[in-house]
Specification:
With 244 residues, the chain is an alpha/beta fold. Helix content is 37%, strand content 16%. It is globular, with a radius of gyration of 17 Å.
C-alpha cells in the first residue's frame, strides 16, 4: 500500500495571516511540515493543497522550490481540494496534516498509518480522545472513504473540515484514536501555530534547541516546554477552535 500526505495550507488565516510561510529557524513553517512528513518512512509522497486565490501564489512557488506537488482549488471547500489532490496520486491511504503544525512527529505519522492498517480501519486520528497536545495532529483515512466523502458531504462544515463527515458517522465508518505514547500525553501544551503567541512558542523551541527541520524530535520539543513553563505559558490563553 502507498501513502500520500496531503497538507492543507493557506496564507489568508484570519488569526495569523501569512503564517504558512513565516520563518521558523532557517526555514519556513511549510518547509517544516513537508520535511517532517517526508521523514516518516511509511510516507511515499507529500502534496500541498492550497486555494486558487492569488494570495496563495507564494505557497505554490514555495512548493516548486521544495520540488513537491501543489494543487489548488476552492478557498472554502477544502474537501474539494483534497479531491483534486487525489487525482494527482495513486496512494491507497491518505494522511491529512495542516500547515500550522510545524513540529508534527514522523514517528506518530508512522504510528497512525500502522494503526489503521493493523486494525483495517477506515479512519484514525490523534484528536479523537484528546490526549495529544495541539500540534501533533495526524489523521489517516482510507482513500475510498475520502472519495465517498468528497461526493456525499453537503454540510458546509463537512466541506471545510475534510474528515468531519467520516467521524460524525461511526455507524458507517470504522474509526479509532491513535494510541498516545506516554511522552506525548500533554494535552495542556500547544505546538500548533494559530496565533502570534503560538508562533513565539515554536520559535522559542527551535531557537532554544538549535534545531532544524530534520533534527528536532517532538518528544524533545515537549520536554523543552515542560522544562521551561514560562515559555509554555505564552500561548496558554489561545483558544482552539473545536468542530464536532
Amino acid at each position: 500500500m502507498t501513502v500520500a500526505v496531503i497538507a492543507q495550507a493557506r496564507m489568508g488565516s484570519s488569526r495569523l495571516p501569512g503564517k504558512t510561510l513565516e520563518p521558523l529557524g532557517s526555514a519556513t513553517i511549510l518547509d517544516w511540515v513537508v520535511s517532517r512528513s517526508q521523514l516518516a518512512d511509511q510516507v511515499d509522497e507529500v502534496i500541498v493543497a492550497t486555494s486558487d486565490e492569488s494570495i496563495d501564489d507564494p505557497i505554490e512557488h514555495r512548493c516548486r522550490a521544495l520540488d513537491i506537488t501543489c494543487v489548488r482549488g476552492d478557498p472554502l471547500d477544502v474537501l474539494d481540494r483534497f479531491r483534486v489532490a487525489l487525482i494527482k496520486t495513486d496512494a491507497d491511504e491518505i494522511v491529512r496534516v495542516t500547515a500550522d503544525c510545524p513540529l508534527i512527529d514522523p514517528g506518530i505519522l508512522n504510528l497512525a498509518i500502522e494503526t489503521r492498517r493493523k486494525r483495517d480501519l477506515d479512519y484514525v486520528s490523534t484528536s479523537l480522545d484528546g490526549r495529544y497536545p495541539r500540534g501533533l495532529d495526524v489523521e489517516v483515512v482510507r482513500r475510498s472513504v475520502l472519495e465517498t466523502t468528497a461526493v456525499e458531504a453537503a454540510d458546509r462544515d463537512e466541506r471545510e473540515h475534510v474528515t468531519l463527515f467520516v467521524y460524525r458517522r461511526p455507524e458507517r465508518f470504522t474509526c479509532a484514536p491513535v494510541v498516545c505514547p506516554s511522552w506525548a500525553r500533554h494535552p495542556e501544551l500547544r505546538v500548533t501555530v494559530d496565533e502570534g503567541p503560538d508562533l513565539e512558542v515554536v520559535r522559542r523551541i527551535v531557537d532554544g534547541l538549535g534545531a532544524d527541520t530534520t533534527a528536532l524530535g517532538s518528544e524533545e520539543a515537549l520536554s523543552f516546554l515542560i522544562d521551561h513553563p514560562e515559555i509554555a505559558a505564552i500561548n496558554r490563553g489561545v483558544a482552539h477552535r473545536h468542530v464536532s
